[in-house]
Amino acid sequence: MLIGMDGINGVSDQERYARPYEADAVKKAEQVGKPEDLKKSDKGGMLVDEYIHSNPVKGIYKPGKDSDGNPKIDYIDPKKDISSEAKADDKVSSDSKKSESTTTDTDKVDREIEKLKEKKALLEQELHTADENRKKELERELRQVETELAQKDNDTYRRQNAVIS
Q1: I want to staple 130 with a disulfide (CB 3.0 to 4.6 A). Which of 65, 93, 134, 158 is the partner?
Q2: Is the separation of the CB atoms in 85 and 143 below 8 Å?
Q3: Contact 72, 65 (CB under 8 A)
């Protein structure tokens, strides 16, 4: 193998090694099949593929689960008796109709919020009639009650602290 001055094969060197392999590939391709054996279309002798029609599988497909609980597709053959499968579906649907009823009770949370609102109203009344020393203490208490009320007077707090039975 000849190596050029910069350590890379020159184009002429590459061609010399590549040409014998290309010639072998062309000879093998000629032996495999002749273009006359392939079908030609009526348009100028171009090679084309031919579509072969097949009968599609007809039936009913529905989602289901295998024994491990993984999703799968169930095939129902229309030639088989469908009534037995309909009975099985009715049995499953009747089982799913039986359900428990639950109630969510938020009365305790509502009472807690009402007490905070009453306390806030009471503090606001006392704030109007109080002297200067007492006003600062009442304002601090009022801010605490307002903060607690803002945290508790919402649907998220009610749902989290509801009693479910």
Answers
A1: 134
A2: no
A3: yes
Pairing of strands 60-65, 71-76: antiparallel
In this structure, what are the phi and psi dihedrals at residue 69, rounded to the nearest 5 degrees?
90, 5
* Mean pLDDT over the full length of the chain: 75
pLDDT of residue 81: 56
**Joined tokens for residue 31:** 């032996």
Mind giving me the DSSP string for 127-153?
HHH--HHHHHHHHHHHHHHHHHHHHHS
Give the torsion through C-alpha atoms of 26, 31, 32, 36, to 10 deg: 100
10-66: pLDDT as tens digits: 666 666 666 666 667 667 666 665 555 455 545 556 777 887 777 766 777 788 888
Which residue(s) pair with 75 in the sheet?
61
- Would you give the DSSP letter of residue 122? H
Contacts of 93 (CB under 8 A, 6+ apart): none
Residues 150/156, Cβ–Cβ less than 8 Å: no
Residue type, 14: Q
